Amino acid sequence: MRLIRPHISNVKTIPIYLSFLCCLLIHLPAGYAAEQEKNDRLKELDAYWAEVSRTVREGDFEGYKATCHEQGVLVSGSKRTSYPLSKALARWKKDFIATKAGTIKANVEFRFSQRFGDETTAHETGIFLYSFTDQDGQWKQEHVHFQALLLKSKEGWKIMMEYQQSKATQAEWVALAGQSKK
């Protein structure tokens, strides 16, 4: 009868395998928690962008203003300028009033190519499509590459910086449809 002895190299590798298994078990819950946190953040941000769209569509100026941080900044790549969002809001107010009155129609949609963040900060990159009717009732569209920096406080998410980088094309807009549409 022949005795089977474990090979010495196999015995020596057992602690290595056990260490690896312990590392996996320790980090696995953290990975799930991080993924859940990301999903929760994206749901909140999706709700934020839906609210922005609603306010534009309904001409709700005060609602739109509430989505902006009081010290927010608008950056225009095409105009090579930056200024407080409060100045942009003052300029856009007439369009909200006209939309609410039914004189014009407006809509904005968002699609994202990149979304980073944690529980209180977010950096979103993508394209927005702003559609509106002119004085003759003809629909016009503007596709714009943008980045948004948002902060979350007890009042919810607020845009701190909106960077309207450059014009986008319809093809670029369509290409983002598979990645994200919000």
Please give the CATH architecture. Answer: Roll
Note the total helix count.
4
Order of helices and strands: HHEEHEEEEH
Return the structural class. alpha+beta
The order of strands across the largest sheet is: 2-1-6-5-4-3
The best one-word shape is elongated
- Work out the count of structural domains: 1
Q: What is the radius of gyration computed over CA atoms, rounded to a whole number of angstroms?
A: 25 Å
| Beta-strand segment tally | 6
Compose a concise summary of this entry:
The chain has 182 residues and is of the alpha+beta class. The chain has four helices and six strands, in the order H-H-E-E-H-E-E-E-E-H.
Secondary structure layout:
Blueprint: H1 8-58, H2 61-66, E1 68-76, E2 81-84, H3 85-101, E3 106-117, E4 121-133, E5 139-153, E6 156-167, H4 170-175
Parallel strand pairs: 1-6
Antiparallel strand pairs: 1-2, 3-4, 4-5, 5-6
Keywords:
alpha+beta; 182 residues; Nuclear Transport Factor 2, Chain: A; 4 helices; 6 strands; elongated
Provide an overview of this structure.
With 182 residues, the protein is an alpha+beta fold. It has one domain: Nuclear Transport Factor 2, Chain: A, CATH 3.10.450.50. The chain has four helices and six strands. The chain has a six-stranded mixed sheet with strand order 2-1-6-5-4-3. The protein is elongated.
